[in-house]
Amino acid sequence: MPVWAASPTADSVPPLAQAEASARQLPFTDAANVAAFQSAPVRMALLLPNRGGMFGAAADAVRTGFLAAYARQKENIQLSIVESGDSAADMQRAYDDASGKFDILIGPLSRSAVTSVAQSGRVTKPTIALAQPDLPGETEPQLPPMMLTVGLSIDDEARQVANWVEKEKAPGKIFAVSTSVAWQKRAARSFLVRARQLGLQVEALELSTPGNALSAPGLAQLVRRIEQEKPALIFAALDAGQTVQLRSAVGAELPLYGTSQINPFTLNRSNPNDKLPELDGVKLIDLPWQLQPDNIAVARYPRPAGNESDRPNPDLARLYALGIDAYRIAYEIAQQRSGFDLDGVTGRLNVNMVTGGSTYFQRQETQAVFQDGLPVPTADQY
Q1: How many CB atoms lie within 10 A of CB 266?
Q2: Beta strand 348-352 with 360-364: parallel, antiparallel or unpaired?
């Protein structure tokens, strides 16, 4: 089946008869619809920002992963790639146009564009959004019945770490440490809310970062509080370099947990001696794609080609993996499966999309611990 790029207004798909078009509303609910659908290709559109825009590198990573999965499993699928400008308004126009031409829409990629589509009232086709919407409130957002949000989420990771901590922690207070960076504050907040729901005592602490390094006075004050209050553990909503700083200040005896952002490595890293022994014993969660080369789902897909002189970018590697799983989810929906589980490269996935009802998506990432300078999956996975 062809793969091609199309502008949001290009009529890249031949028009279908009205009767056929009315039958192609996924997911299916009756035998007549299933029979009609099986006789013609499923039309998918991958909606991405232009390669030359601010989201170009992210879009390219998702596109490459998506096409890698499509190449392995493309029976009865007709795929188009639709590019638009970066703004939420540009993507909303592209989405509205594609909605009239395609059966399944994959995208948008940015949080603002997903928010726009989710709130537009115009989601009438199965839509697999590649980011989480920015919607208010601590509870799960209310999404249109035909929309799944499968984007990688630091908030979800923080909540999963809270669930893990609840099963392992010793009695005592937990410190959730972040800086003023937006994603770190979100991660700390998500961890705190979930941990308190589980009955744990958590206090959020924000450290200043002159020159992107944790401030020495702030670390000294944290160490004094640790000596006085003896917390059970620390949740580090930090990046890898900051976590090394934190560990050096507080010592290796105090248990430390974090998100995928404390893993700066990819499985195809260029330097095999590139390690962080300073983090040995630190626990984290990350994607199977970043941790488990022998995982069957991971091993079947190629690693993205890159410039040999460039250090592999772990965030782009994760977006490549997201592209793979986004296609696999779309393919399952194209087979009229409304509820299913997948052993994905981004985690264990549970998907439910039922016509007229609410959608459900859950990703369980892999728990790991640093050993000999590298993150290794733990023996027990909760």
Answers
A1: 21
A2: antiparallel
pLDDT at position 12 over 90? no
Q: What value does the mean pLDDT take over residues 303-313?
A: 73
pTM equals: 0.87
> From CA 260, how far away is CA 240, in angstroms rounded?
9
> Which residue has better confidence, 381 or 17?
381
Res 307: pLDDT = 59
**What is the residue type of 149?**
T
pLDDT of res. 19: 30
pLDDT at 52 over 90: no
Residue 382 pLDDT level (bands cut at 50, 70, 90)? confident
Predicted confidence at residue 142, as pLDDT, reads 77
In angstroms, the CA 38 to CA 31 distance is: 11
